């Protein structure tokens, strides 16, 4: 089985070109499944539908969340479909098995006042402070994911026109930048980045103090540091800034479809979760203005 797992992981990395995060997720799920089969002396080529259901029940019994079980089933399904295409098995044992229903969790968001407090923390007194100010303003202004932000090159930002081009694996989207974000970015590019980078060949927009592209871990540490400086009791991550971006846009009357486009959601149902945060004032306006409200 280990040889087939390696072949499968090579296939999705080289042919499917999945990201490293996705690759590691597949690997973790399938190796956990492999350990379960070994412990129970089950041949992976002879597993049937009941065997897959038993594994999902086992995961539930040891306290795994529905979202984890669902993701694990998707990984195992992909593995068996790979084996089926390569004629290692005659039937996919995951065929017809439904993923457990996942309850959509209410995303944690900051109030406008908490965002203001957080963004006030970095001071433009040194190279790092100038960069951090630009980075936090940018994260809140665009609602981009961490991986998207750290993957940006300097040429992806058009300060004159006021937008950033976010390029995904399948499609790209242009996101407008607010005046405060543009101002902070200009300051960073002109007075900090050009000193931080040691090599003119570095194209990354946001760099660390060594002049190299900022990492996910580096980004998270910066957000955590300023959260503590602001004495905000809520847990704050870069993703919570993304949730706050969407929520505040919606509360101030932005169109849901426009928010979907800016967030890069392929399905508007992912964006609709923010509807529950709509301000009571918007609902009152609707009740007063709509003839059939």
Q: How many strands in all?
A: 3
- What is the CATH superfamily classification of the largest domain? Intergrase catalytic core
Strand order of the largest sheet: 1-2-3
Would you give the CATH topology of the largest domain? hpI Integrase, Chain A
Distance between the first and last residues' Cα: 61 Å
Structural class: mainly alpha
User: Given the structure, what is the number of helices?
Assistant: 13
Mean pLDDT, as a whole number? 87
* Oligomeric composition of the shown chains: single chain
CATH class of the largest domain: Mainly Alpha
Helix content: 55-70%
Give me the CATH architecture of the largest domain, please. Answer: Orthogonal Bundle
Low-confidence runs (pLDDT<50, min 5 residues)? none
Largest sheet: 3 strands, antiparallel
* Residue share in β-strands: under 5%
Along the chain, the helix and strand elements come as HHHHHHHEEEHHHHHH
Please tell me what the overall shape is: globular
Q: Can you walk through the features of this model?
A:
By secondary structure, the protein is mainly α. The chain has helices at about 1-15, 20-40, 50-60, 65-85, 110-120, 125-140, 145-150, 180-195, 215-230, 240-250, 255-265, 270, 280-290; strands at about 155-160, 165, 170-175. It has a three-stranded antiparallel beta sheet with strand order 1-2-3, with no helix packed on it. Strand 2 and strand 3 (about 170-175) form a beta hairpin. Helix 1 runs antiparallel to helix 2 (about 20-40). About 55% of the residues lie in helices and about 5% in strands. It contains 13 helices and three strands. The protein is globular and about 65 Å long. The chain folds into two domains: about 1-85, Tyrosine recombinase, N-terminal domain (DNA polymerase, domain 1, Orthogonal Bundle); about 110-285, Orthogonal Bundle (hpI Integrase, Chain A). The mean pLDDT is about 85.
């Amino acid at each position: 089985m280990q040889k087939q797992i390696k072949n499968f992981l090579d296939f999705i990395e080289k042919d499917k070109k999945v990201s490293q995060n996705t690759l590691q997720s597949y690997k973790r799920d399938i190796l956990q499944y492999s350990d379960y089969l070994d412990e129970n002396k089950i041949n992976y080529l002879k597993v049937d539908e009941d065997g897959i259901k038993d594994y999902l029940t086992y995961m539930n019994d040891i306290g795994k969340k529905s979202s984890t079980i669902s993701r694990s089933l998707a990984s195992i399904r992909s593995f068996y479909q790979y084996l089926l295409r390569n004629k290692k098995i005659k039937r996919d044992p995951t065929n017809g098995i439904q993923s457990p229903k996942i309850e959509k969790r209410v995303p944690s968001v900051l109030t406008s006042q908490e965002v203001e407090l957080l963004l006030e923390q970095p001071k433009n007194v040194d190279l790092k402070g100038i960069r951090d100010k630009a980075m936090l303003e940018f994260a809140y202004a665009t609602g981009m994911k961490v991986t998207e932000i750290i993957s940006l090159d300097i040429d992806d930002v058009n300060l004159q026109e006021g937008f950033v081009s976010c390029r995904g694996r399948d499609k790209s989207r242009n996101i407008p930048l607010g005046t405060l974000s543009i101002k902070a970015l200009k300051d960073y590019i002109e007075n900090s980045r050009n000193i931080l980078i040691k090599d003119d060949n570095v194209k990354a927009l946001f760099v660390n103090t060594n002049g190299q592209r900022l990492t996910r871990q580096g980004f998270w540490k910066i957000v955590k540091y300023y959260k503590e400086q602001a004495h905000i009791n809520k847990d704050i991550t870069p993703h919570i800034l993304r949730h706050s971006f969407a929520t505040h846009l919606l509360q101030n009357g932005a169109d849901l479809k426009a928010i979907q486009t800016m967030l890069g959601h392929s399905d508007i149902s992912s964006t609709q979760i923010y509807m529950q945060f709509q301000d009571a004032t918007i609902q009152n306006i609707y009740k007063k203005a709509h003839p059939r409200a």
